[in-house]
Design brief:
The complex is a heterodimer of chains A (406) and B (444). Chain A has helices at 2-18, 20-30, 38-42, 44-48, 56-66, 68-75, 87-91, 98-110, 122-132, 146-149, 166-171, 173-187, 203-207, 211-228, 238-252, 264-273, 298-302, 307-315, 340-343, 345-361, 372-385, 394-401, and strands at residues 160-162, 191-193, 232-235, 260-263, 278-279, 290-293, 320-323, 366-369, 390-393, 402-403. Chain A is of the alpha/beta class. The longest helix of chain A is centred in the middle third of the chain and has 18 residues, at 211-228. Chain A is globular, with a radius of gyration of 21 Å. Chain B is an alpha/beta fold and 444 residues long. Chain B has helices spanning 15-26, 40-43, 68-74, 79-83, 88-100, 104-109, 162-175, 201-209, 211-228, 242-255, 269-285, 419-422, 425-442; strands at residues 2-11, 31-35, 53-54, 59-60, 110-112, 118-121, 127-130, 132-134, 148-154, 182-188, 232-235, 258-261, 288-291, 293-300, 303-311, 320-331, 341-345, 351-355, 362-363, 386-389, 395-396, 407-409. The longest helix of chain B is centred in the middle third of the chain and has 18 residues, at 211-228. Chain B is globular, with a radius of gyration of 23 Å. The chains are: A alpha/beta (406), B alpha/beta (444). Chains A and B meet through helix 2, helix 3, helix 4, helix 7 and helix 8 of A and helix 2, helix 8, helix 11 and strand 13 of B.
Chain lengths: 406, 444
Amino acid sequence: MEEKLANINMSIARNAEKHYELYRKMQENIDGCIKCNLCLSVCPVFKATGGSGYAGPRHLSAELLRHLLEFAPLVYDSSYLCTVCRHCEFVCPGNVNTPVAVLFLRRLLDSLKPPYKPAKDVSKGLETLVKLGNPYNTPPELKGEWLEEIDGKEGGKAKVLGWVGCTSSIRLPELAQGFYESMKKILGEDFTVLGSREWCCGKPAFLLGGIEAARILAEESNKRIAETGANIIVTPCPACYSAFKYEQREIYGVNPPSENILHFTEYIHDLMDKGRIYFKENSGNELPRKIIYHDPCELGRGVGIYDEPRDILSAIPGIEVLEFDDVRQDSVCCGGGGGMWGIYPEISMSVARLKVKEALRKGAEAVVSACPACMLNFKYTVLTYDLPVKVLDISQIVAKALSEKK
Amino acid sequence: MIKVETEVLVIGRGMAGVMAASTLAKNGVDVTIVAKSYGTTALSSGCLDILGYIPEVQGVAQPPFSGFKYLVVSNRNHPYLIAGEGDPKKAEDIIREAFDSLPEQIKNLHVGSVENNSWVLTSFGTLRPTAFVQKPLEPAIITGEKESILLTGIKGLFELNPVFASSIAMKDLKSRSLGYVKVKPAYVSIRSLEGAQYLAIPLVSTVLEEDEEFDEFKKELVKLAKRENPDTILLPSIFSTPNLVEKMKELEDACKCRIGEVPTPPESASGLRLQRALNNVCSTLGIKVFHATDLKPEVENGIVKRIVGTRRTLLFTEARKIVFEAEKYVLATGDLIGEGITCDVDEELNVAFRETVFDLPLYIPEGPIATTDPFNPAGQNFSKIGINVNSEMQPVDSAGRVVYENLFAAGSIIGHYDYNAEKCGMGVAITTGYKAAKSILSRR
């Protein structure tokens, strides 16, 4: 056992050397930790796992990085238990950037050689991700299946490209369809999607610690986007959005496909402001009357979009928008982010369950989010625990509420 | 780059910042908050103190305002007296006015009065004076009536050690001739957490959210109540959500005694409840909160033109800038814990204090900055470090000249007081936050 630990230590030390610059910056940053435990009080995973198996932000990142070599081998599995919701970072009085430490650990661990690999084989996942262009182990040609049901068309040149994202295309056809229908209603022939040609933006690879993989994926995606000649890209997925808008340039070192990258809610909000779209006075029984809006971490804390979705929802006649106890930058993560849904779905769902229960207490008929990852997690949570609430994405609601004419 | 335009920009989202912002917003001013993160408010016990002790004369202020006659002699630069233009009567009035105009969400959370200090039993077994306690903490007030208290810890949770705390409490009570108030130690356990490697308050509170776990916990408490037959059961501060606070009544009915919390060290549920209520104040009044670090001002002709900050990114990459342009600014960044003030130590162990945003001139008390006794009743000099302000809450230099015409300050960034030794932190935050907002309103 001791020999094994020593081997792992050597391996980690070599990797740490490779990322020495980042490691040093991080150690400086971590010195801000005053051990106040505020990060634990907001960490969704720490609460959901009941304190066993996951040490929480403070211990996983701050304490660990202070003593990297002694502890890393003992906890490397649990570094994949972080949803990268960044709530801890937003409450930390000491300004410690804990999610960065988690991502750094993942990067270190990613390059470990067997048999010192984490129990969950993440690098194998990265390999298939690069090969297939999606994190769901699905053949690329099946990625456009959602279009068939609604007689949608993929490919061709258009002004605006709808970037649907892997989660919506493969796991949430209803979201993809809602997005497609709303955009088609507004733009007609000026709108297209890549369908089965759509690739991965690189974000999942980055979150799992594979920056090189992220770069390869991003380059391939951008090549395919260029084929459509679109200069505006609209996406319902906040993860893809922030990958295209920020991370490709800032982290993977790739030029983004366009300067005009918009989240679906930004796009609709803009049209609403310009008075170019209208909502039906009465959408009948198609839409739930009382909905509760969940701030996706990637959209809220990630890129600062809080008002647009709320403005859109409250502009739709007949819908009452409820709020969770903690909203906007204090919103509690649904548990589905940071690659966790793929690795530990049962923990993701037990986090989401707490949120759904709160929604039910407040009398909501539907939980509405603006992120496929949140919706996927909520959807399966509701199924698994048999909870009486609908789960919808904002694009599905907009699709139903949009009116052709004023 | 994002640009935010607003009439008033408040820097900091603790008690002082939100008090200033909410007072302004209620008067129709367009306010925006920018903050780094949570600060001392979330780490506090959530009690709203006005004045508990006068460290200079080692006296107790009961009622709070009775301490002002000593303050006038011992510390003329105390923020209360500054806010009252040096006149203790005026200071009293402004404090009353400020507490009156507290947002409803904060008022509803607390019980108490500005005219009286209650003695509250803490998780260390000490009694501490405070003007307002949160409702779940009300049973921890020692009223002087005969009662038997069961100080109940949760097995594995270090924040309250009932055996240690009750022995301290009995000594303390005896020295105040309140020996007839009995404090006994007890423990309850939370079954599903018995195997947990590390028990923390957030964990306990999440587990109790589950109905079955809560019922188990209730049964344990009922068993305890039957055996010991106390008048009051005091637990550590663990009921962190509104839902759980509601359920405390259910516990009282089942146990047929009063159930309360004691003020507990961070991260106590009561501190989080206060911060949550403040967050709630912002969202109901439509005050937008932005998060940014490394705030740097741009100044022209003695006026703050704009503040440039950095939005947080994953990994330390090229920064995303955010610019705030406002007519007036309120600095409520807190002190050393909230990082409104930082302390740099060089290789020769020389200590240099700096105000982080504007690099304002600081008041630093003479003598050693700290003593080795952490509970020194005379207080610690480092707590008193802060900026100087005039009665309009504008930062001034050592000669009393206003530094920037459109800059105001509130909360513990202001120097000349020791919130810990004087037990006056929230009171100063509320009063100075209110006064800063008033000064801005009078200039519109």
